[in-house]
Amino acid sequence: MTATSLDFTGLAAQAAQLAAGEVTSAELTATALGRAHASQPTLNAFKHLRDDAALAEAAEADERLRAGDRKPLLGVPVAIKDDVDLTGLPTSFGCAGEFPCATTDAPAVALLRAAGAIIIGKTNTPELGQWPFTEGPAFGVTRNPWHPGHTPGGSSGGSAAAVASGAIAAALGSDGAGSVRIPAAWTGLVGIKTQRGRIPTESELFHGLTVLGPLARTVGDAALLLDVVADTGSTFRTGAAREPGRLRIGLSTRIPFTATKTRLDPVVEASVRRLAESLAGLGHEIVEVEPDYGLIGLTFLPRSLTGVRDWTLRVPDRTGLDKRTRSNAGHGRLLAGPALRLARALEPGLHRRIGSVFGRVDVLLTPTTATPPPPIGTFDGLSGWETDQAMIAACPYAWPWNVLGWPGVNVPAGLTADGLPLGAQLLGSSHAEERLVSLAAQLEEVERWPERHPETSW
């Protein structure tokens, strides 16, 4: 099969083609690597590409397929974000310097391998995943496949760009303040912020804020990848194939307290309200609600900044870090004691107060971001405080669910007049992924976002 014929073929479809003998893993993997290399000068989605290793693993997968092995992702090429350990490659998490190569796979990577996936490479992320843009001196600028003059978002921007461009069908990202959902919104993808603890990790990332999650072009593909890395069999694929039933959906556009100037772009608000109308057309009841967020931001900063401090301790040469990173790490050192303990202690109260909205509705629908994707370079030359103000103004909606540890799914919400993707969040209470996946899949049937692709072929 040619590279063109494989453009935008989904994860499940590729697995089915492999099982049926319609294509080989060697062909799929060579095509994915070829498209990744071809897009790299423009999009710069990848930090590392595993050409020789991935092709060798694909050849082995083909032998297993011929012998009748039917693991769920056997022979299918995917990618992972460069904050996850993969044996033989460094985990630099967007930082400059010579990092040692990992000697063991992260738990999620081990599960991907056990499912037969071919990991073609590791994708770019901003320095320690701090920002909703994927730019930095360690790797350059990662661009949006829909419009290379704009960011794909962050911090899983490389994973999002790789999937949206068609190089691969799905990728693993991580989400500590919207880092899966924001780039999914700005590249027209489905991105799942999982329930805390759903996907195994070696430690509690950023003091419970950060979880791993899939990015894909369809709900079914995201569910398939999630089933694999959460080791849940077919739980989420089953959810994607099941009708959610009639739900009461709370529409909320109010921005949580941020202590900075924020405003919802009318274009984004219109796109979210249009999705609400689509959901109403599917038989769901839509009501306007306002979750009681309170001062939740005060519990976010000790966890996030202490997490930055923790990660900087792994960096071989901290003098090469962005001055904003060094400043954040310094604040993290100050907050690592009583403030961090208090932030964690307040979480059950936040669950009760904010979670009370789920006594009135089954699911929340909110914007994923407040603005369309910013142009490349928007955050260049800003001080730490100026960067914080600018990124909160663009992305004030996602981070509360990281404090709560609860799941959310970004769904594509259409395009701006200039052809830039927009997104909306479906948010649930504790362990509500199945319901969210089911609702997102139903919405996909009428919205038909998998039919929308960037015009440029890489």
Automatic annotation (TrEMBL):
InterPro entries: Amidase, Amidase_CS, Amidase_dom, AS_sf. GO terms for molecular function: catalytic activity. Residues 27-436 form the Amidase domain. It comes from the Bacteria. This is Amidase. PROSITE patterns: AMIDASES. Pfam families: Amidase. Belongs to the amidase family.
